[in-house]
């Protein structure tokens, strides 16, 4: 996906304005922001939005010169769609074209997901379709699997079920705890999320008829990147 407003003879395509949703410290947000600062990265991080005013990641974003916004879900009396319409209004105000969920601890309704279909991506700490939902590291250990990891996917109305953009795998080793495993997975999250965003922002990866269609290959050398065909 590229914005065409600045395309023309001698001009590079405008980088699509991207919002990152967080609920806490936002370590994946930091990875995305740092990646977007590198020359040639195809997305512009224009907004960091949280449902919690005390989210630590908002401080980082503000100090980095990025616009921030808070839409407190508690103010909408359990009306999830009203909460999301308020979020959508903020996105429109900031001219946002892509949304990255980075530890945003709210389940989105079909209304919002469908409105942003093909422009909304998420990172999940497991090798989907295994271990959807919460407590993925403890569940992986309990299941005695040999590989665990993380997945970046397009968001669909079904929780943690969207088409896969990228996956990184890490081995489970003797003595692993949920905390040690989570730490190793997080390292790979910080690798594949910027890579996946770059693919979507540049138009290399698109959601077409419920499938990810990718042109070219930009596999990071330090992660196992699995791309659907």
From TrEMBL:
Entry GO CC: cytosol
Positions of the record's site feature: Raises pKa of active site His: 160
Entry EC no(s): 2.1.2.2
Coiled coil start-end: none
Residues the record marks as active site: 124 (proton donor)
Parts of the chain that traverse the membrane: none
Protein's organism: Chelatococcus asaccharovorans
Protein name per Swiss-Prot or TrEMBL: Phosphoribosylglycinamide formyltransferase
Formyl transferase N-terminal domain ranges (all copies): 17-197
Gene Ontology process terms (BP): 'de novo' IMP biosynthetic process
InterPro entries from the UniProt entry: Formyl_transf_N, Formyl_transf_N_sf, GART
Record GO terms (molecular function): phosphoribosylglycinamide formyltransferase activity
Similarity-based family: Belongs to the GART family.
Biological role: Catalyzes the transfer of a formyl group from 10-formyltetrahydrofolate to 5-phospho-ribosyl-glycinamide (GAR), producing 5-phospho-ribosyl-N-formylglycinamide (FGAR) and tetrahydrofolate.
Binding site for N(1)-(5-phospho-beta-D-ribosyl)glycinamide: 26-28
Pfam family, one: Formyl_trans_N
Keywords: Purine biosynthesis, Transferase
NCBIfam families referenced in this protein's UniProt entry, alphabetically: PurN
């Amino acid at each position: 996906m590229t914005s065409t407003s600045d395309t023309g003879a001698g001009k590079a395509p405008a980088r699509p304005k991207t919002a990152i949703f967080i609920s806490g410290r936002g370590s994946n947000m930091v990875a995305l922001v740092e990646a977007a600062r590198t020359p040639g990265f195809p997305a512009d991080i224009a907004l960091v939005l949280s449902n919690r005013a005390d989210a630590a990641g908002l401080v980082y974003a503000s100090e980095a010169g990025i616009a921030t916004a808070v839409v407190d879900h508690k103010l909408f009396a359990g009306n999830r769609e009203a909460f999301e319409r308020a979020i959508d209004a903020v996105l429109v105000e900031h001219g946002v074209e892509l949304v990255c969920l980075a530890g945003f601890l709210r389940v989105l309704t079909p209304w919002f997901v469908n409105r942003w279909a093909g422009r909304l991506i998420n990172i999940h700490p497991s090798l989907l379709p295994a271990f959807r939902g919460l407590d993925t590291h403890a569940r992986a250990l309990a299941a005695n699997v040999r590989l665990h990891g993380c997945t970046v996917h397009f968001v669909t109305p079904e929780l943690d079920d969207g088409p896969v953009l990228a996956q990184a795998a890490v081995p489970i080793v003797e003595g692993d705890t949920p905390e040690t495993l989570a730490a190793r997975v997080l390292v790979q999250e910080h690798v594949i999320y910027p890579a996946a965003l770059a693919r979507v922002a540049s138009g290399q990866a698109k959601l077409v008829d419920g499938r990810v269609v990718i042109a070219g290959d930009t596999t990071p050398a330090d992660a196992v990147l699995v791309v659907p065909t």
